[in-house]
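Ticket reopened. Same input as before:
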Amino acid sequence: MQIDRRKFMAGVVATGVLPAAATIPVPARAAAPPVGKQAPGFYRFKVGDFEVTTLFDGNVKVADPNKFIVNKTPEEISVALDAAAIPRDNMRNPFVPVVVNTGKNLVLIDTGFGDNGPPGVGGLMGNMAAAGIDPKNIDTVLITHFHGDHISGIRAKAGTANYPNAEVIVATSEYKFWTDEGEASRAAQVWKGGFAGVKRVFDPIAKDVKRAEYGNEVVPGITMIDSRGHSPGHASYLVTSGTGKLMVLGDVTNNPAIFARNPEFQLWADMIPDLALTNRRKLLDMASADKIRVVGYHYVFPSTGYFVKQGKGYEFAPAAWEGTL
Amino acid sequence: MQIDRRKFMAGVVATGVLPAAATIPVPARAAAPPVGKQAPGFYRFKVGDFEVTTLFDGNVKVADPNKFIVNKTPEEISVALDAAAIPRDNMRNPFVPVVVNTGKNLVLIDTGFGDNGPPGVGGLMGNMAAAGIDPKNIDTVLITHFHGDHISGIRAKAGTANYPNAEVIVATSEYKFWTDEGEASRAAQVWKGGFAGVKRVFDPIAKDVKRAEYGNEVVPGITMIDSRGHSPGHASYLVTSGTGKLMVLGDVTNNPAIFARNPEFQLWADMIPDLALTNRRKLLDMASADKIRVVGYHYVFPSTGYFVKQGKGYEFAPAAWEGTL
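Engineering reply: fixed in the latest deploy. New output:
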């Protein structure tokens, strides 16, 4: 015997066993589970004929903003953080290498931490894969400077080269400073690990590392620019294709909402602060006057936009996100 | 007989047939072709226990900034554009719907153009797929207002519902205005198409569209907020989970670098300009005072961050990009 479900339910309701609302059962739809996965961290745009990709290696929390900025009072730092909507207890420092495909060369500028970093970083290789870039096809690695977040990814912890077919090009002055035994022995405690990291990365490839001078066109279309100060031999790179121009600034400023808006704010890692400030102003003056697109290594991802001179500082304006190239 | 290539090359050089540099041939490596593909346009973050995803539908070029902003002189507009590094001839207007997964509901706020838009838009469905969200699992569509870039994607050109299992919830006042035959007949020419679009989208589902009042919790954890002015019944949405809060502003301001920095700038599409300005100030005052994270429909993707009150306006500060949730 078949039971007529509708009549059965009506009877149940009539007898008061179930409330009336239960008479119109709706199809049970389980809520979709959260996806839990972030978008890949890459973003792409053209500079003339060149294809540029910014790549997210990850970020870390700044332990103490009052030690991150070393020449201002906690009150001055609070004002600057508030103006940038950065919470004191969760200031983030991201790491953003760049790939430039010139059509003739596939160039990586800075390498992130690789597998040598703290928790929260080391995403570069995964994001390169998502971006369709094979590390084996990178033919040139350009370095802005020798701090660990820029060079550690050249070589995995196990010793293998992450970009096995790439020529590594660095500024002569930077190489000289960090491989000088005298500098190493005189270094402040905070930089001892940096010197050790340089040894780890560069000793095995010392004879193959190409040193270049500021002003050199290190790859056709890419010129090394003097931006010393953050480190003794810091280099930025000017990418030019047709009328397209891009300045890959490296660490000329850290987060622009703090350090470009307030150029005199001194980052703990600015090794020659006065020279860093001079070259910060020089490059941001150039970028703003000529409306040159920039990429910065520690800018909120996708880390590309323009500078506008404003009062004593420079405002960063993110470039429009485009869905196509 | 085997030819010793090294000796042969040396001989060639010695005889002057080839220049010396040719004696060390490097392996020919074809440059990797450009990838030519943009990253998917989605970005994800948590608000309390809720999973929020912003999704890029695309963008268009503003034909003439001097007609986009209707109450300022070309000189005043130029000053504002320059301050935001927006070129006069390439001001972009992006479109960014949002999905909120509350764990119980999967909610889409605004629907982009679907296949009813101009070139450069209609990317929402593709980006939802990339984000792992199935349109069939969307159980609620919330609408901020009835302008075409927000509602056209409810229904494909061919008539099919893009979110076939979703209840559509709108503000009573917005629905009333756009479905009023008197309003339609009195409408300025520029809005005639808008009324036609509303008919196309809503007529077939009129009896199923749920009307809600400002202050209603339309979905558990999501409250409709009065932000009239941009349109007669514009609604924003406050998302709350635990101590987490997010304001999905819709069109309270267009691009914040212009319209939040200069709240009195009037967008051509602000239908009741004085009320729009009043509610713009009300909501941005609230967002900045309480440091509430926001999403804006026409902000540079990923379109999420915080407002800081500054002088007569509000500065938008993008939230840090996180590689994980």
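The mean pLDDT of chain A is 92. The CA atoms of residues 194 and 246 of chain A lie 29 Å apart. Please confirm and we'll close it.
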